[in-house]
C-alpha cells in the first residue's frame, strides 16, 4: 500500500510544473528529509518553489510536508500506511491547523456571549446539522435553550423572528451561502449577536460577526477518510471547555445536574 505522502502527491501531480516534479520525485524516492534551504540547494530550486509545491498538494507549508514525510513508510520505516496511521496523521495535521488559526481572543468573546445568553439560535446546513446537535447537547447541559435550524429556507424565515440581544451561532466551513448571508444581515439589523465558525477567513459573514472563530478544513490533505464536521466540532469543544473553565457557580451546578440525569440517578 502506498504511503500517505505518495497519495497526496500523486493526486495532484497533473498540475505540477517541471520544477515541482523534481521536488515531488525527491520525496517519492524516499530520500532523507532536509531543511528547506538544504533541499533547495540540493535540487537547484528556490525556497519559494518548494513552498508553492507544498501549497499545490494542499499543505500549509514545508514544515507540514516534513511532518507527513517523517511518518511515511519510506521516510522512517515505520508502518504508517495503515488505516490507523492515516487517520492519526490527518487528525494531527487538522488539530494543529485549527490551533494555529483559532484566535484566543475570539474564543473568549464567543464563550462570554454564550455564557451570558440563555436562548441560542444555531444555524448550520448539511453536515453542520450534526454539529448543531452536539452544540445543543453540550450547552443545554449548562442551562441554555438551543434552537437548531438546519435548512436554508427555515434559516431565512426564522431570522425574522430573532430579537435584539438574541444570540445566533452559525457554523459553515465554506462560509459562503447567499441564503445564510441574507439571514445574517437580517439579524444584524436587529442588533442580535452573531458568532461565526468557519474555515473561510474571507467569509462575507465576518463583517456581521461579534466573534469570528476561524477553524480549518482538510481540503486536499484528506482523501475522504476524515469526517468534514470535525473542524467545527473541535471549536465547539473548545468553546464549551472555555466556559467550564470560567468556573461560574451556576454553570457548574447545571453541569452536575445534567450529569446526574444522564447517569439515571
TrEMBL record:
PROSITE patterns: HTH_RPIR, SIS
Domain SIS: 110-249
GO molecular function: carbohydrate derivative binding; DNA binding; DNA-binding transcription factor activity
GO BP terms in the entry: carbohydrate derivative metabolic process
Domain HTH rpiR-type: start-end pairs: 3-76
Keywords: DNA-binding, Transcription, Transcription regulation
Domain of life: Bacteria
Protein name, per record: Phosphosugar-binding transcriptional regulator
Species for this entry: Enterococcus caccae ATCC BAA-1240
